[in-house]
Every structure is written in C-alpha cells, then in structure tokens.
Design goal:
Blueprint lengths: L3 H17 L3 H13 L3 H20 L11 E6 L7 H15 L25 E6 L5 E5 L4 H4 L3 E5 L4 H16 L7 E8 L2 H11 L11 H15 L14 E9 L6 E8 L6 E5 L2
Parallel strand pairs: 1-2, 5-6
Antiparallel strand pairs: 1-3, 3-8, 4-7, 5-7
Helix pairs in contact: 1-4, 2-3, 6-8
C-alpha cells in the first residue's frame, strides 16, 4: 500500500524541483541557441534567460513569477494507493505554501482566488492505466502566457499533412512573442477534440532534441521546426534564429471522417519533473 503521505510528499518535492531547476535537455537547447545566434538583441535575451536559470537554481527560488497551473500526469499500475486524489491536492497545497508557488487558481467567473492552487477540478489530474507494479507521477506547472496561445482545429481528412503544417505554423505565427519564445511546440494529431489537445500537452514531456520513433512523424517534426525558425520571430519575439527549441508530435487513431489537430505551446521555461513509486 502506497500511503497518502507518500503521494503528498512526492508531489511537493516534484513541484519544488520543477519550478526551480530546468530539465537538462531544455537548458542545453537554450545554450546551443545562444552559441549559434548572431543577432545582438537575440543573444542578450538568451543570455538573460540562461542567467535567470542559473540564479534560480543557486538561490533555490522559482525561475519564473508565473509558477503555472498545477497539472499532474499519473501512470497508475497494479498497486494499492491510499487516497491518491487527496495526496495530490495536499502536495500542491504544501508546495504553494512552502516553495512557495504563486497562488494562481481562481474561479473562472468571479475570479476569486482559492489561495491554495487547488479548487474545482484543479489540480488537473490525468490518469493513464499501465500494466506494471508502480505509480509514476509527473508534475507539469503550465504557465498561462504560453497556454493562452494554444489552438485546436477539427480539420478534414483531405487537408492531410500540408494542412497540419499550415495550422501549426499559423498558430505559432499568430502567437508571435506572447508565449516568451524560444518555445517548444507540442502537437497532437487524431483522437477526438479533447484527446488531440491532451496528447499535444503530453508531447511536451518528451526530451528536447529527441525525435519520434516513427520516421514519418520525425520528418514532420523536423520540417515544422525548420519552418517555425525561418519566421525569424526569435527570442522574446524580438528577432533571431531560434523561435522554437523543438516540435514534439504525438498521434492517436481517429474517426475516418476527422483529422483533429491540437497545438500546445510551451514557453522556454519547460518545467516538469517525474518520480516513480513502488509499493
């Protein structure tokens, strides 16, 4: 039996890790972008981002004032867990108070702040059932500046790969500098409307620079990434070679009459952390 307190403490530690330390793959991608950039303003912006990352780690404070909407991905295997739901909520509340996380969660209509980063259906919890004797927890504090630029299109099958490329590029171009580039772009193709958006977000959990094992999808990722960086939007939208660090695509089978396309944009602060718990 995995106790509620184990879940709570794990969630707390994961959020603390995620908001303070950027994953190494993202940090390396930003460093590489800085090395290859030759525009002065773009280099200044990338240097400021890299300095910010280092300062947050040294000082033990969140790397961005927006500590995000608390999203938790759960891979639940053949294990007994004592009140998983409350363990996650209490972990978020503890992180809000002690890290601290900025209290971002409000009622969508009254705008009243809960003060705890928990509320109606928040933290957002996604559960995937797996055939293993573990539970895997991944926290993904999602900043709203990039989230506000997400988009969904219920395309027709005839639009095909050209339509997918066009929609992703149009979405990124419309976002411009608003999501604090260089960005990472998650793309979900297939399923239903909500599944396309969900797998677009889950795609962002993959390592920057790693390609999809499917050759056709990998080629699509590379092609879209090249097209995005050719826009010249650049770091913070002020011009430069690197508008996106990567494009990550996940797919799901879908209805014969549909082609849902979800685009989830992530700012440079691609924060997430994962832990595996065994009984």
């Amino acid at each position: 039996m995995i106790s509620q307190s184990t879940i709570e403490n794990t969630i707390f530690n994961l959020f603390k890790e995620a908001v303070i330390r950027l994953p190494e793959d993202v940090k390396i991608a930003l460093q590489d972008a800085y090395k290859k950039e030759d525009q002065e303003i773009a280099r200044l912006n990338l240097k400021a981002i890299l300095d910010n990352i280092e300062a947050a780690q040294k000082m033990g404070v969140p790397m961005c004032q927006d500590t995000g909407l608390p999203i938790v991905f759960v891979k639940l295997g053949r294990v007994e867990v004592e009140n998983l739901y409350q363990g996650i909520r209490k972990g978020v509340e503890k992180a809000t108070e002690e890290v601290p996380l900025r209290p971002n969660v409000v009622d969508p209509l009254t705008r009243e702040n809960t003060g705890t980063n928990t509320g109606n259906l928040i933290p957002q919890i996604d559960i995937e059932l797996i055939d293993d004797e573990i539970i895997e927890l991944t926290v993904f504090p999602k900043g709203i500046g990039s989230e506000n630029n997400n988009a969904l299109k219920m395309a027709l099958p005839g639009e095909g790969i050209k339509g997918i490329k066009r929609f992703v590029l149009d979405t990124v171009t419309a976002a411009g500098g608003k999501p604090c580039p260089p960005i990472i772009v998650g793309v979900g193709i297939g399923g239903s409307s909500d599944m396309a958006m969900k797998i677009a977000k889950k795609a962002l959990l993959g390592k920057v620079g790693e390609r999809n094992p499917d050759k056709q999808i990998a080629e699509l990722e590379n092609d879209i990434l090249r097209q995005i960086n050719e826009t010249g939007i650049g770091p913070m939208g002020l011009g430069g070679k690197t508008t996106a660090l990567d494009v990550k695509i996940l797919t799901a089978d879908t209805h014969t009459a549909g082609l849902p396309i979800g685009v989830c944009i992530q700012c440079w602060a691609e924060r997430h952390a994962t832990a595996v718990i065994k009984p």
